[in-house]
Amino acid sequence: MWGIAAPLGQSPRALPHRADVVIVGGGITGVTLLGLLGQRHVDAVLVERDQIAAGASGRNAGFLLAGVAENYARAVHIYGRDVARAVWEFTLENHALTAAAVERIDAGYQRRGSLTAALDASEAACLEEAATLLVEDGFAAELGGGRGLRDARLTLFNPADGEIDPVRLVHGLAVAHSDRIFQHCPVVAVEDGHNSANVGVDGGGSIEAGAVVVATNGWTAQLLPAVPIRPVRAQMLATAPAAGVVSWPVYAEWGHRYWRQRDDGVVLVGGFRNRAFADEVGYDGTPTAPIQRCLDSQLSHLGVEAAVTHRWAGIMGFSDDGLPLVGIVPGCRRVHVCGGYTGHGMGFAINAARASVGQLLDSQALPPWLDITRVAALTQ
User: Start and end of every FAD dependent oxidoreductase domain (predicted)?
Assistant: First the structure.
């Protein structure tokens, strides 16, 4: 599969019978949680059914974008001005935390900004409104022409955005805590209790825990069916190195297509889920011919002649309102969740993990828009 890094080099060993905190999921959220808990000298372990970064954290395009999947104007209309502003600030904080982390990790990090490209008049008008609102709220945004992008009516440049190799980031965060990570250890059940929680693993073993944090994003409902995070497939491809194609990560057609070029010349193209919404829901991580043909067409549209070297898919976690779900699962005492990033995990996950640890260890209140307790209102 695309992007898988070298194994952590874990030697076989027995699972502990107990831990203060058990983290389920070895993506960006899980390894960040493990690192933060380790800094607080908490006895925490991480269990991952495959290997580190094998899920969506290792299968995404590496975009570090501010905000939610919707542009800022649509976010303001959906959530209100105050929440849209707070979410944007939260993701800027997330980017700052990521930048601090990669000072000691070689993860291909660049902060050259991003382009959101409008391909029709409606999207162009929305981007104009987004730029106005962003500037009014004190954020950087620059409207421009097509900036060399074919068919783009208008572009919005966000100089605060960036890009990264997500697999190298996750492995870089994990390596210092590899002795607390148990790979190829599928969790089959998470049970809440009055005095402790229990994590059951494949083969009949279990770990008693003071608390459990389920950080499996798109796979959350397999362990916690009551948590409304839907599995949604995203598909991508990568090419052999090509001559200069694009200078920034590009997000186009309301975010339904996206591409970037790494410094080594490799072009990454993803999206087109809107061509088959119903088909792109579920846990099947197999690329499909119809979407891959769309990706090929986009590649040709960009003028890229380099051969396609990899095709893949990953399972994202979508919430009902497009905002993450963090906190104690309603009805539970000791089971927490951290996920539901709705396609923007790289923009949310590190700061969401920090918020989760703040609640878990220090009883810090979560922002209402982030707190999972809001789902009661969503389902009424």
Answer: 20-354
Provide the mean pLDDT of the chain.
95
Whether residue 10 has pLDDT greater than 80: no
Q: What is the pLDDT of residues 54-92, one digit of tens each?
A: 999 999 999 999 999 999 999 999 999 999 999 999 999
pLDDT band at 2 (very low <50, low <70, confident <90, very high): low
DSSP of 295-344, one letter per residue?
Answer: HHHHHHHTT--SPEEEEEEEEEEEESSSS-EEEEPTT-SSEEEEE--TT-
How far apart are alpha carbons 272 and 280 in whole angstroms? 10
Kind of pairing, strands 181-182 and 44-47? Answer: parallel
The tokens for 373 are 């307790």
Select from 237, 255, 251, 229 the least CA-distant residue to 378.
Answer: 229
Residue with tokens 């049970």: 191
- Give the pLDDT mean for 170-193: 96
Residue pointed to by tokens 């409304």: 228
Where does CATH 3.30.9.10 sit in the chain? 110-160+231-319
Domain at 110-160+231-319: CATH architecture: 2-Layer Sandwich (3.30)
CB-side neighbour CA atoms (13 Å) of 48: 26
Instruction: Judge whether 67 and 176 are in contact, CB under 8 Å.
Output: no
d(CA 350, CA 333): 24
SS3 194: coil
Fold of 18-59+167-228+321-379: FAD/NAD(P)-binding domain (3.50.50)
- Ranges assigned E (strand) in the chain: 18-24, 44-47, 63-64, 114-118, 142-144, 154-158, 162-163, 181-182, 187-191, 197-201, 206-214, 229-239, 250-252, 257-261, 267-271, 308-319, 325-328, 335-339
